[in-house]
Amino acid sequence: MTDFADREGVIWLDGAMVPWRDAKTHFLTHSLHYASAVFEGVRAYNGRIFKLRQHTDRLFEGAGIVGMKMPFTRDVIDAACQAVLAANHLEDGYLRPAVWRGSEVMGLSPRGTAVHVAIAAWSWPSYFSVEQRMTGVRLIEAPWRRPAPDTAPTQAKASGLYQICTLSKQYAEDRGYDDALMLDYRGLVAEATGANIFLVIDGKLHTPTPDCFLNGITRQTAIEIAEQTGIDIVERHITPEDLALADEVFLTGTAAEITPVSEIGPHRFTPGPVCHLMIKEYTRITTGGAA
Ligand code: PMP
User: Looking at CB atoms within 10 Å, which of 1, 29, 108, 270 has the fewest?
Assistant: First the structure.
């Protein structure tokens, strides 16, 4: 695996394309010390960026929540995403826009720091066929909980919030699991470390109310698919005990797409017709079909 700092290609940095290896920031960057950053994860399929404006909107809203004024317009960021994809000769790829405070001032106060924006893109095709994905991933309960909305900027895709995600992911991987299920501050089922969760109970699709974590763009697409295919959707508070009632479970996220789950702690699930339909429809929509 090549180091992400040492690759061919170009990165859009503060308004200009720069060689990949030159897209650097200083050690005294405010964001490195105080997590003053927001980012996005976006995917392109067949040269088309899926729900780009929604991702750009979330980036701007997130920047606003953490008090950073975007130095570019949404149109400029959208165009830059397209340009980065084209300049790196990518048809299917993952884009990573990020916004952060620079090294102009050091100390807790963000006053006087410049807001920087960069966008990278790299090849990241769907690794598995539908059949391979249908085996499902194994989750363990995370040792960390999603914080209450008044203790962290839970509706922003803010870098600081990812500390508990990387710790939980590491905890899971150290124990031989693929990912971790995070409960929230109330002990309710929230999400995985980088993806939302859905449960199939008695043929209906249940998903936690996103009141302290991201209402993911893939989550919203999965709800649209359910509505269009006649599957009832129930958005509600879900307890860990409810997991015992589920026949199928799957995760949704830009990177994860639709990923069936086979195991969470003591519970076992068999990815079945709903997972299959979701993967097929999501693939159809992302690769060009109408939502
Ligand atoms: N929750 C977390 C913590 C995430 O990192 C992601 C990925 N952005 C999601 C949910 C799913 O969001 P989306 O479907 O918009 O990628």
Answer: 1
